[in-house]
């Protein structure tokens, strides 16, 4: 197990939210993620490989939710792992997962565990509250 600078690891997690997701700065992905980065998540595809696939996921979300904005609610770093809990909110203004724009507000909350290697994110495990998000989209009803 490697030990990364916990302050730098926390900054990575915050920059992903602020620079990439909030600002849509896809160039920042190259600074923040390792070239052979892998992401595991509940979204399709459930595994992303490399920066380009991650950039495409960000583009897809921004096309459907152009006002997407989120916060890092908590962040903890230890060893080579940084974990953060986040909340993102947006307006559904473009097609997403086959759902035409509703103009409604959506909220996505989740937790991400990331492995940091040589100062960049090498791997992430994303645990999103997808059911709540899909309820906001109107694709599923509350159980």
Description:
This protein is an alpha+beta fold. It has one domain: Nuclear Transport Factor 2, Chain: A. 31% of the residues lie in helices and 38% in strands. It has helices at 6-22, 27-32, 51-64, 130-137; strands at residues 33-40, 47-49, 69-78, 81-91, 105-117, 120-128. A six-stranded mixed sheet has the order 2-1-6-5-4-3. A hairpin with a 6-residue loop joins strand 1 and strand 2 (47-49). The longest helix has 17 residues, at 6-22. The chain is globular and about 45 Å long. The protein starts with 5 loop residues before the first helix and ends in a 6-residue tail after the last helix.
Structural class: alpha+beta
Approximately how much helix is present in the residues? 25-40%
Strand content: 35-45%
The figure for the number of domains is: 1
Low-confidence runs (pLDDT<50, min 5 residues)? none
Mean pLDDT: 95
Oligomer: single chain
Distance between the termini: 42 Å
Provide the CATH topology.
Answer: Nuclear Transport Factor 2, Chain: A
Q: Mind summarizing the main beta sheet? A: 6 strands, mixed
Rounded radius of gyration (Å): 15 Å
- Shape, principal axes of CA atoms: globular
Task: Compute the number of helices.
Answer: 4
* CATH architecture title: Roll
Order of helices and strands: HHEEHEEEEH
In short:
The protein is of the alpha+beta class and 143 residues long.
Key attributes of the depicted protein:
single chain; six-stranded mixed beta sheet; Nuclear Transport Factor 2, Chain: A; 143 residues; alpha+beta; 4 helices; globular; 6 strands
């Amino acid at each position: 197990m490697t030990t990364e600078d916990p302050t730098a690891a926390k900054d990575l997690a915050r920059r992903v939210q602020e620079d990439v997701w909030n600002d849509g700065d896809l160039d920042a992905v190259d600074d923040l993620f390792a070239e052979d980065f892998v992401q595991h998540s509940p979204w399709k595809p459930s595994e992303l490989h490399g920066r380009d696939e991650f950039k495409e996921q960000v583009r897809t979300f921004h096309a459907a939710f152009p006002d997407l904005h989120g916060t890092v609610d908590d962040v903890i770093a230890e060893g080579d792992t940084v974990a953060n809990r986040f909340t993102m909110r947006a307006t559904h203004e473009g097609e997403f997962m086959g759902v035409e724009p509703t103009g409604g507000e959506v909220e996505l909350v989740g937790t991400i565990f990331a492995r940091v290697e040589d100062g960049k994110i090498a791997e992430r495990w994303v645990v999103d509250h997808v059911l709540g998000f899909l309820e906001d989209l109107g694709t599923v009803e509350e159980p």
